Amino acid sequence: MCLNSGDVLHKRYKIIAQIGRGGFGRTYKAQDLQKSSHPLCAVKEIVAPQSSDANILQEVKKRFNREGESLSRLGTHPQIPELFDYFAENNKFYLIQEYIEGHDLSEEIGTGRLPMNQSDILQLLEDILEVLAFVHQQNLIHRDIKPSNLRRRNSDKKIVLIDFGAVKELNSIAITSEGVINITQAIGTPGYMAPEQQRGNPQLNSDLYALGMICIQALTGLHPRTLPTDPNTGNIIWRYATSDRPMINISPELDHILNKMVGYLFSDRYYSAVEALQELRQLSASGISTLSSKKPAKSKPLFPTINLKCQVWWGVGATLVILGVWRVNQLIPTTCPLIIGDKISCGEESLIKTVTLPEKQEGVKAYANQRYQEAVTWLKKARQKIPTDPEILIYLNNAQLQAEKVPFYTIGVAIPLGNPSDGGDSGQEILRGVAQLQTEVNRNRSIKGYGLRVVLGDDYNETEQAKEIATKLSEQGEILGIIGHYTSENTRAALPIYDLNHLTVISPTSTAESLTEENSRFLRTIPQDSVSAEVLARYLSQVAKKDKVVVFYNPNSAYSRSLHERFLISFDEQNGQVVKQVDLAKPIFDAEAAIRQAQKRGATSLVLFPDAKSNPYAFSNALKVIRANKGRYLIVGGNSLDSTDILQERALSKGIIVTISWHYLGSNNQNFSNFANQLWGSEVSSRTAMAYDAARVLSVGLESQFSLSFKEKIESFFNPIIRRELLYLSLKKPDFQTQGATGEISFELSGNRHEKIVELVKVMPTKCSPYGYLFIPNKFTSAEAAGLKCQ
């Protein structure tokens, strides 16, 4: 039964009229009776598949909730309808969205309509690509781009993107006899649907195919299904339809963009709307047509996109020779400006304040005065005295590059260094991995004859300073990629700044699920929270046989909240029960009372998910839980517990189980472990291995710089975006892979690491630790059985 005018859905939404109908459901115009003035909304009704299979219905519900979450995020964009609510009722699913007053693009283009001119098409492309870029940066695909799903809003004449195709899958779900989820029908509209999408394998650039076909339809007046294809390539043939229309003047540049968008092979197209939008704007800057001037939403990139015209290049080149390279310095902020006190350093200032070593101070003083050979001498002496200080090795490597006049590429590292009580130790662990990879690269000049310079930024484990550091690193034109930040909170705060300035970020430690959902320029070498959560849940239920737990977490921390949410899902799938959830972030916290509550509710284990010291109370409250527990309950936790703070609890910490991504006693890469021992005089942590892998990824990606043409190399002096984009595209290739400390490294489309590397470690007694305890892989029964040898 469909809804009728006057019906009230969910005791709230009064139906006015049906405004759309398709094979997957209906759309209604309605009023929200629970809001003053009864504002209009759009009610989308999706009929669930008729099935008695509980697994199918469960999968439908799961996917509906997931798509509801995705639409909630997308609705934050001003040209995507806001999602007000989503729910299931009477075996139907409903999305309640913002109602857009306006008309569909089908009223502007198509048979019988006057063809659009080039200026109109360019404006249309820019308008829609801006929205699609936002969608693709969430690693989401619309899958049903067509004129009727592009609505021109009356209030500002902007195009609003509606009716995402993912929810239509709900009507096409089946489960094979082997229990595999199968989608029985390709989602999309014939003519606009890309070939790979028809085969059930949609890509980000499948949306670009559809948009390109819409633009061709607008130029030719012909529906895409009526256009012929090249029998050899499969590509659409369309220019013939404009040849007899002199009023349609299509430049070679626009012809190139459209043909690249509608290529038969998705590998021939732009990777995503982000790349297509960038080329459109570059060509616009070159003057192919006039586009409306648009102001950036909030802030401008620090480096404007500049594209030199090929036909005037040689004349400009002669002028540049006369003016000299000082002109370049006027256009691009200096990299490593040698400013003391700016929390940024490539050798002129020590950011680690815990140890004052005369040799190190003399070394940074010499570097600041550009006496690089003298800096090398002093920093070598400093390393002999404190070989565990990674900052010394970074600055020594940087100074040697300058002293020996070796060509190099530059990356930035943003971590906490000056705040030892709040993540500084972890910052140094991360820096050791970067320093080790840099040393390997510079010894062999392994980036095709180039070395690697590293610029450090101290974010102090604070969100506002993380933003400041991100801005300063982005301003330095030679910095091509970033490693950082330590916590998910700081990474999330800085990502928009890096994205605005075309910098790819690789984190060795930030695990919150939402990070890869929110930004396409973010990758990580550490697995996301869902991987660790699943391993912990499985261990508790299947190995430890603990089916009732109390979870302690910080709901205000991106990392802690993400791990907590993923654990709840995984533990529920294991038929476990969370009997209580406790907020660790409260300044007044009674650990003894929490333990009593756990006992009263029949808990058999405690789960600790404190943040990485981004909150002043959460981690210390977790330590209070360990002390109050006194060994009564099994304690498990996330990688934030991988800290000497836990070991300092000595016997009270015995038996605690923690998930980490790598442990040297279980490593298969002995070359990495041996060199680490040689450099630092001891074994290294999981954070060091993850950081090494992050630096390794960037060093391999930097080899792409050698594909630049001579003209592009010259242009890149004026426009750092060229090199940054080249690195980004190299790392985002589906076949990218390399070998690191933890084995093979490759990435999913989302930016998450493909390899699900995770290890359970347990606090075990040993004489090899000053605390009497160490984290040892749980697969071993003791430190001795693991082969641990005291140094």
Automatic annotation (TrEMBL):
InterPro entries attached to this UniProt entry: Kinase-like_dom_sf, Leu-bd, Peripla_BP_I, Prot_kinase_dom, Protein_kinase_ATP_BS
Lineage: Bacteria, Bacillati, Cyanobacteriota, Cyanophyceae, Oscillatoriophycideae
GO molecular function per UniProt: ATP binding; protein serine/threonine kinase activity
Residue stretches making up the Protein kinase domain: 13-281
The protein, known as: non-specific serine/threonine protein kinase
Gene3D superfamilies: 3.40.50.2300, Phosphorylase Kinase, domain 1, Transferase(Phosphotransferase) domain 1
Binding sites annotated in the UniProt record for ATP: K44
SUPFAM superfamilies reported in the protein's UniProt record: Periplasmic binding protein-like I, Protein kinase-like (PK-like)
Top-level taxon in the UniProt lineage: Bacteria
Top-level enzyme category: transferase
Family membership noted in the UniProt record: Belongs to the leucine-binding protein family.
One Pfam match: Peripla_BP_6
EC id: 2.7.11.1
Catalytic activity entry: L-threonyl-[protein] + ATP = O-phospho-L-threonyl-[protein] + ADP + H(+); L-seryl-[protein] + ATP = O-phospho-L-seryl-[protein] + ADP + H(+)
CDD domains: PBP1_ABC_transporter_LIVBP-like, STKc_PknB_like
Keywords per UniProt: ATP-binding, Kinase, Nucleotide-binding, Serine/threonine-protein kinase, Signal, Transferase
Source species: Aphanothece sacrum FPU1
